[in-house]
Amino acid sequence: xxxxxxxxxxxxxxxxxxKRKAQDAIAAKKAEELAVQRKANKTARAEIxxxxxxxxxxxxxxxxxxxxMRRVAKKHNxxxxxPEPKVVFVxxxxxxxxxxxxxxxxxxxxxxRQINNGVFMKVNSASIMLLRLVASYVTYGPPNLKTVRxxxxxxxxxxxxxxxxxxxxxxxxxxxxxxxxxVCMEDLIHEIYTAGPAxxxxxxxxxxxxxxxxxxxxxxxxxxxxxGGQYGDREELINPLVRRMN
Length: 246
Description:
Strand order of the largest sheet: 6-2-1-3-7
Helix content: 40-55%
Number of helices: 9
Number of strands: 7
Oligomer: single chain
Distance between the termini: 80 Å
């Protein structure tokens, strides 16, 4: 009788039972969502791997084709005209002192507001004209695949709602550029490197790269690159400069 009385007194209050029931329902729902998300992630990873494999084959085939064409030209004592670059990487090498208003405005349009900032630009008549107007403040050249990949993986930040967000997950890219078919890092690298149809959106998504000061320094900034200085077009030699600044 005493045990029955103590059991009756130790009844769990109704509000506690309701709370437990609600918590169990929340936990079950969360576990179900997690299982669905894990399955979706597994499918997405397989798709991303397949894409990356296709891109690697495309890069390799393009390089092999170029090598073959150079060999054929050499064999027939001809010159091989290298393909025109589609994209250039532009780095600002001078600060804000004594910048005239027109040049300052152009640098703002190019998103190069600070020294050692870098951006990708598609090569067209408009961009070439802008680069000529601000040539003494920037240096530029066509980046190779390794440079593009290292910049985006190491220094890549996304512009999300006008905020600088680190690209720590493919979901950051997918949420911003998913409607353009760009859902992962390799998609983004491919779009930038090949100057694809969604280059403008992909480039706008990338925050201007904040590079370090070049190792070994940058002497003679007041002279053009062809005069032994730093500013202006340095063609393929932009790649070793970016390595020193990355």
